[in-house]
Amino acid sequence: MKNRLFAFSIISLLLFNSCTEKENKLGDFKLLPTPQEFTVNGASELAPSDVTSYYLQAGLALPKTELSEELSASESQADATLEISISTDLDMNAGGYELEISKDKIRITAKDEAGLLYGFESLEQLMMDANEQQVNLPVCSITDYPLLAYRAIHLDIKHHRETKDYYYKLIDKLAHYKINGIIVEMEDKLKFEQQPVVASADAFTIEEWSKLSDYAKERHIEISPLIQGLGHASFILKHDEYKALRDDPESDWAFNPLDEKTYEVQFDLYEDAIKATPHGKYLHIGGDEVHTNGRNSGKSALELQLIWLNKVTDFAEKHNRIPIFWDDMPLKNAGVYGPTHNTNFTVEKTDSLWAANGQKLEDFLEQFPKNCIYMRWSYTNPEIYGNKKAMKWFTDNGLQVMGATAGQTRWVLMPQNESNIDPIKSFAVSSIKNNLNGLLLTLWDDDSPHFELFNRGILAFAEYTWSGDKLNKEAIKSLYRQRAFSNKMADSSYAFIDDLEGPVAYWKNALLKGNSRNYISRNEEAKTKVVIDLPDAEAPGKWSEAHQERLVKAKDAFAATEKIAQQIEKAKATAIRNQYTLEIYEQVNKLVQFTTGALLTLEEYDMATDATIKEALAKEVKELPAKFKSLRAELETVYGKTRKLNKPDNYILDQDHHVHLANQSLNFDWQFYAEMLFLEKVSEAFGK
Question: What pLDDT is attached to residue 5?
C-alpha cells in the first residue's frame, strides 16, 4: 500500500535525487531497531537512485515493502544492483538477515522470508538517510536478528475506531520497524454473526477484518484477537438480551461462570473473532480485574475463575489457538499481588507475604491450565523483585509466561512519563534475559488520546524488543525523531514532546476542584460543585488570591505552550514525513494553551482596578466560548482525518465501571466536558 503515514514516496525521492549531484561523503546513518552488528567502512558509489534492479534467488518473491514496488527484475545477477537470497543455514535467530553494501552492489541474505522483509526495511531506512543528507549509501555490513521472537502491540478499539485506511497504513509502519504481532481488543468493533446484538453499527465485518489480517500476514505481522471474557464484559452484558448471564444482576461487568449459557455466548464470539483473524496464533481471553461469586454459589473467586479459565482455554486449544490470560486475579485472590507493582514492598516483605499466602495458589495448582500463557502485566515497575517473583512462580510450576508493558495507560490527551520508555526498556531487557518468548505493548483506549501520539512509545518498544539494551532513553528519543520525521530532526532543538507532558498533565484538572475530570459526567451538580468558581466583580483580587497556586502553574504551562508552538512550527517546516503526527501534537498544544490562557485572562480581569481596563477584559472573557467553539472545530477536523469521533446514534453506553472518559458520550463531548461546563459558567456570568 502506497503513501503510508510514516514514509515519503520513494519515487519522489528518486526524482529529486536524479536532479541533484550527491557528494561522495559519509553521512550519518542510524537504523531503528538498531542492528546487532553494523559496521560502516566509508561511502559507496551508490546513490539511492541507483537501486533500481534486483536479482532474486529462484523460488523467492520480493517482500511486501514500498521499496519492492520501485524495483525491476534483472535477468543477470551481474547486472543487478541488489542481490537477494535466503539461507536457512545462517547462524542466527528467525527473522535475521545480513545486509552488505559494497562499492557498487547490495546483497541481502536472510534466514527466512521475515528476515528478507526486515533486510529490505533496513535498506529503505539507509536510503532515506542518504537522500535526506544528499550523500551516497554507506559501504557497510549489517548482521541483524531479533532478541525476542514475538514483538506485538495492543490495538484497543473498544471506545472508538479509526478509518480502515489508517489501519492498513499502521501495518506498514509496524512492519517497517519490525513489529510482528498485533493483539486487537475488538469488543464490539467486530460485526459478530452468531451474536449480532453485540456488534456496534460501525463495526468492521469478518471479511473486512480478514482482509486486514491477510495484508498484515504478507508483512509478517500476525493479528490475534482479544475478546474480553469473565470480566470487562460490559459491551455484552449491557444489552437486555444478556442480563440473565450477569454474575451480579445489577452490574454489567462480569459473567456468571457457572451458567453454561455464558460459554455458549463467549464461544460464539470467539469463533467469529477467529474467522476474522485467520492467521493469528493466539486467542487472548482477558480475565483481569474481576471478582465473581457465581450468584452466591459459595465457591471462592479463585475457584470460579479457574472453572472459567479451563473451559475457555480448552475451547482455544480445540480451535488451534494458544490462549493468553491476564494473570492478575489469581495473584490478587491469593493475596500476593501487591508486590508485583508496589515499590514499597521490600524483598523481605515480599518473601514474607508469599510465605504466608503462596499456599493458596499451590492448593489450586492442578487446576491452572498448562496450555495457557499467563500474561504478567506491569506498566511502571517491571524490574521490582515482586514482579519477577510472580513470573518465576508461574515458570517454576511449568506454566508459560509472557510480559506486557505499556505505551499508554490512563493518560489523557497524550502519553506521559516520557512515553513510558524506561518501563518499556526494563521489561524488554528482562524478558530477553529470562529467555521469554515475547512481549506485548499495551495501548489502552480508556481515556483515548489520538493513536498517532503513541508512536514514540511504539518505536521505543520496537527498539528494545529487537535489539536489547543498546540505546539509552535520550538516544531513542533522538532516533525516534530521525526515523519518524527527518534526519535533521534528530537534533535536540526539535525535542518538544517531553515539554508538552507537564502542561497536558496540568490541563486535565486546571478548571476543576480536585482530580475530577473523569467523574464530571456522573455529577449532576458538576458545574457548581466541580468546576472552579469565577471572579466576583465586587471582590477584586480575592479570586486570584484563592487560586494563587493554580495560576502560577497556569503561567508556567502557558509559557511552555508558546515555546512548544514555535517548536512544532519549526518541526513542520523540517519534517519530510509524518506531518499529520505533528498536526495532532499541535492541536493538543492549542487546547492546553486555550485553557491556561483562559485562567490567566480571568486573573487579569480579577486584578484590574481601572474601570475601562476591567470592561475590556470582561469582553475578552465573554468571547472565550466563541474562541473555544472555533478551537474545538479545528481539533475535531484534524483528529477526524483518521478517527471516527462519534459513536453510532443507537449505541448503548455501558455502566462505565472504571470511569473511562471515552465511554461517557456518543459524540466527542467527553473530551471537553470540563471546558464546556466552565464556559457555561462564563456565559452565565458575563453574558452570551
Answer: 35
